[in-house]
């Protein structure tokens, strides 16, 4: 009974929509634009959030970084105090490694922009990083071809290098296999032993695609390890079951001991965490999401008013038809479902086109900025939910007023 | 249909609350609770709106739908643990409105 009623109502509604094509198109345009606006905002925010999360995760989960500068700071940030802090040194890594009990892996890293050359191909401004052997166990990365350097290569400062995909494309444009080939890193000959898997653009600028990794003991031959410009830091990963807070407490004690700080003296190093970074971005994306929801929400409401308006016109135009239907025995519920079905159908079609538009924009964006922008199933469900909802809300009053019409007066109306 | 002024007031408050709670359907807070949560919350907002239409036409089904939507909304907030000032304010206001609506219920039109 209910399904028959629904089916008949939908057939009636479809007939009405097809009969007034231009009107249908114009009224669903409001919803299309509304859904397009809101779902595009959500898609972009979700994609940026996902990208940042992956970038932060690539720095390592549950990793504490010993650095000169903190990553986050408040308005009363005494930057002048931080200026005179020493940068972390490789020698400190050894001492921390010996003293710490809660560390699973620890590494040291410096980096600078250098020129890479291979035959006639040159890549300027490539990020060359010098890693201690242990840093490879702290940081997450994938090798597509070749291998990571061995411990003896790292300790002995062998001239070996791992390359990111962008650098491979730049140095080996003829698709030759880079493994085993020699390239020049800052004027020094290096043998390529491994290639990183392509990662794409990173929001934090830490994609491995544009990085060349050499052992720290080799990098220090052409990098100033005491300079802040080399951005040196120690990264420590906690053992399973050890919280970052416990690790930070231990690292604070050890670092203060190494640097001989008096009990009353402030720390002259910063302990940074990846999850701190994620939390900051979470707050930012929440604000962007709320702003998007408010702006998109009201634009959809305006689209809903358009549908309500067109539904009132539709009821007015078909008043005598409603009268005939009612005099032939159609129940109020049938008339209600008929008009409600029409408005839901209208807004759902509008929502579908809005989602389709978002999908194409996501495809275009993906090609344009080399970032993974995709319309997720959650956002598709959300788009259809909003469309159906706005169809119900905007169509209910016209549909109910149609259902309440007196059959005799309805038939007489022009 | 002689709709008392107090019912008109309840309907206007209800319509306004629908306008302002509608953008919440796709707010990040609701979205984070689960894939289907915006849909569930959306149904509650729509039910609240339809109840207000029913009350506007002085129909008994409006009161019944209003009761169901208030109960379901309270349950939703309890389940997702969103118990701020707004939650308690909403409960008190809805409780007052329900008492008023139940007073007028026997005089209302029982048909659809």
Helices and strands, with pairings:
The complex is a heterodimer of chains A (414) and B (112).
Chain A: H1 2-19, H2 21-58, E1 63-67, H3 79-83, H4 90-99, E2 103-118, E3 121-131, H5 135-138, E4 143-146, H6 151-156, E5 160-163, H7 165-171, E6 182-185, E7 188-196, E8 211-215, H8 216-219, E9 233-238, H9 244-259, E10 270-273, H10 274-317, H11 319-327, H12 332-369, H13 377-403, H14 407-412
Helix pairs in contact in A: 1-12, 2-10, 2-12, 2-13, 4-9, 10-12, 10-13, 12-13
Chain B: H1 5-21, H2 28-33, H3 37-56, H4 60-79, H5 85-104
Helix pairs in contact in B: 1-3, 3-4, 4-5
Structural summary, described in words:
The complex is a heterodimer of chains A (414) and B (112). Chain A has 414 residues and is of the alpha+beta class. Helix content of chain A is 56%, strand content 16%. Chain A folds into 2 domains: 2-55 and 279-412, no CATH class; 86-268, no CATH class. In chain A, α12 (332-369) runs antiparallel to α13. In chain B, α1 (5-21) runs antiparallel to α3, α3 packs antiparallel against α4 (60-79) and α4 runs antiparallel to α5 (85-104). Chain B has helices at 5-21, 28-33, 37-56, 60-79, 85-104. The two termini of chain B are 14 Å apart.
What's the number of domains of chain A? Answer: 2
Greatest contact between two chains: A-B, 30 and 25 residues
Average pLDDT for all residues of chain A: 86
Helix content of chain A: 55-70%
Shape of chain A: elongated
Rg from Cα of chain A: 32 Å
CA gyration radius of chain B, whole angstroms: 14 Å
Number of strands of chain B: 0
Counting DSSP E segments of at least 2 residues, the number of strands of chain A comes to: 10
Strand content of chain B: under 5%
Question: What strand line-up does the widest sheet of chain A have?
Answer: 2-3-8-5-7-6
| Biggest sheet statistics of chain A | 6 strands, mixed, barrel
Count of helical stretches of chain B: 5
The tally of helices of chain A reads 14
